[in-house]
Every structure is written in structure tokens, then in C-alpha cells.
């Protein structure tokens, strides 16, 4: 099951897009552009136009829940991986510090 509605939104060129202003004169697809209704100019995005959009939203609750659970699991996995990398770097720094040997000078002995 799904529900369809029509709306308008803004079309933006982000700082990360492979497109430049010179590419916009003959563009015929959304490839390289981003749709966002919010004002993104403070993030360095350039407003290049507007779009009339037909949106089809699934109303299948099971499918939506499964997709959200999958996204959350992927995010958790990413966080665990990032944390493990940071922990390993810290452990490496600890081991390097522990490997430093102190040799007293004759005056201190």
C-alpha cells in the first residue's frame, strides 16, 4: 500500500556536488543536485531552482519498521567500528608510552 501527493521543493547545488555553475545551462536530470525544502544557503549550498515533485510513500508499517530497524543497526555497527578504531589508537599510544625506558643519569644515581 502507498499514498501519493504532490508538493514543491527547492533544488540546491551543494559544495560537494561535481557540478559547477557552468554545468547548469544544459542540465536535464537531478544527478548532482539536491532537493531540500529548508534554506541551506548558510551551509554553503547554492539555490538553483525549484521542483514540482510527486511523492509516493509506502504505508506498509512492517516494511517501514524493518527499514528503520536496519538503518539503526547499520548506524550502531558504524559507531562500534569507529569506537574500536579510536580505542585501538589509544591503546597504541599507551603501549608506546609504557615502552619508554627511563635511564637515570650518573648525577641522579
Structural description of this entry:
- With 109 residues, this protein is of the alpha+beta class.
- The chain has two domains: 2-58, no CATH class; 60-101.
- It has one helix and three strands; from the N terminus they run E-E-E-H.
- The chain has one helix at residues 61-99, and strands at 2-13, 34-36, 46-58.
- The chain has a three-stranded antiparallel β-sheet, with helices on one face.
- It is elongated and about 85 Å long.
- The model has no long low-confidence stretch (mean pLDDT 91).
* Oligomer designation: single chain
C-alpha Rg, in Å? 26 Å
Sheet having the most strands: 3 strands, antiparallel
Report the average pLDDT across residues: 91
Element order, helices and strands?
EEEH
Number of helices: 1
- Percent strand equals 25-35%
Total number of strands: 3
Question: How would you classify the helix and strand content by structural class?
Answer: alpha+beta
Overall geometry comes to elongated
